[in-house]
Write a structure and sequence with these properties.
Blueprint: E1 3-8, E2 11-12, E3 20-28, H1 31-38, H2 43-52, E4 55-59, E5 62-68, H3 69-87, H4 94-109, E6 126-128, E7 133-135, H5 139-150, E8 153-157, H6 164-178, E9 183-188, H7 204-222, H8 225-234, E10 237-241, E11 253-257, H9 265-272, E12 280-285, H10 299-306, E13 313-317, H11 327-350
Helix pairs in contact: 1-3, 2-4, 3-4, 5-6, 6-7, 9-10
């Protein structure tokens, strides 16, 4: 264990509910890393307190944790994982603490979760490039990252803010650095309903860049900027609208289709059949945010039905609880989902 447990004394809670309580002190060997772990003004410990309803009091390189037995054990696992991350040269931000807490809670909620190792330690899936290491922040992200490792074609579907595209680009960058693939191809429908690029001002690059900006942003997070520019110039990284994929066979490449819910049936079939030898394909999108004209079937929705059970294809479905942006984003997604659910039920009752 990375932290030394100085005191561990299970006891009975004095409250009328009489639930199991626990108190222990964790001491971390490296004072500097312990300070980073606790956060500025102990903000990371405060986050643990808020999320797990425990008390976490720091003193030097030690932290005393008190609370219900299950919650304190979750805090212990989260801190142990985060400290190990610091020891390996990584950093810990508030979002990493949130992720460790989610995974620790999920490990208790789902005992068969593959990320719960013996001795109750967390082992989250990770994606590592020379510039950055990303650890899963939710159980679904963990499943997604593991699916990316084992499957040649992966569908990541669900609401915005769950990390679908970001993790896909990170995985592609990792494959390129490892030499598993020779290039990365990133694409998405250039406009909401049918790529009418001629109506936009500027040359082709100026027309499509605004629609591909999220892919650029993710790339620059994973790979140093100068290397991204050189790779794009050399054709090692290609970022293009979906219309440019027609008639090509993409071998030895990691290919990502983003915003796939806005493809038509024919566009989706065209894209999926571009996969060449030693290719990896990742399709991301949110079926609840289709911007196609009324009556036009989403290629993503159709593909999820048609390809169900096909060997070599993994489908990972994210939920609003997997949103890793500001907590308010998750609540916004839940509110809209509830609204549309009521509308759908109302329309079905009318028919």
């Amino acid at each position: 264990m990375n932290a030394t447990e100085v005191v561990s004394s299970p006891s009975r809670n004095v409250r009328s509910s009489a639930t199991d309580a626990n108190h222990f002190i964790l001491t971390f060997e490296n004072n500097r890393l312990a300070s980073e772990l606790f956060g500025q003004f102990d903000q990371h410990l405060k986050l643990l307190e808020q999320r797990l309803q425990i008390e976490a009091r720091a003193r030097g390189n030690s932290v005393a944790i008190t609370g219900e037995l299950q919650a304190t054990n979750q805090a212990r696992r989260a801190l142990d994982f985060l400290y190990a991350r610091l020891q390996s040269g990584g950093s810990v931000e508030a979002s990493d603490v949130e992720g460790a807490i989610r995974m620790a809670v999920a490990a208790d909620d789902q005992l068969s979760l593959p990320t719960l190792e013996r001795k109750a330690k967390l082992s989250m899936a990770q994606i590592s490039t020379r510039k950055k290491t990303i650890a899963a922040r939710t159980p679904t992200q963990d499943a997604y990252m593991r699916a990316l490792e084992r499957s040649e074609m992966v569908f990541g579907v669900g609401p915005a803010g769950t990390g679908k595209t970001y993790l896909a680009v990170a995985h592609a960058a990792q494959l390129l650095e490892r030499g598993v693939v020779d290039r990365i191809v990133l694409t998405r429908p250039a406009v909401e309903a049918g790529e009418r690029l001629g109506f936009l001002p500027g040359d082709m690059k100026e027309k499509v860049d605004p629609y591909l900006r999220p892919l650029y942003d993710a790339l620059y997070d994973m790979i140093p900027g100068d290397k991204v520019e050189r790779a794009i110039t050399a054709g090692v990284i290609e970022i293009a609208p979906l219309a440019f994929m027609r008639g090509r066979t993409l071998a030895n490449a990691a290919i990502i289709l983003d915003e796939a819910q806005n493809t038509t049936s024919m566009q989706m079939k065209m894209f999926l059949t571009r996969l060449g030898e030693n290719g990896r394909m990742i399709i991301t999108g949110d079926p609840s945010q289709v911007d196609l004209p009324r009556g036009v079937t989403s290629g993503l929705v159709e593909a999820l039905n048609v390809l169900k059970g096909v060997e070599g294809i993994s489908v990972v479905r994210f939920k609003d609880t997997d949103v890793v942006r500001h907590p308010l984003v998750g609540r916004i997604v839940q509110a809209y989902d509830a609204k549309y659910k009521v509308q759908d039920e109302s329309e079905q009752s009318e028919h």
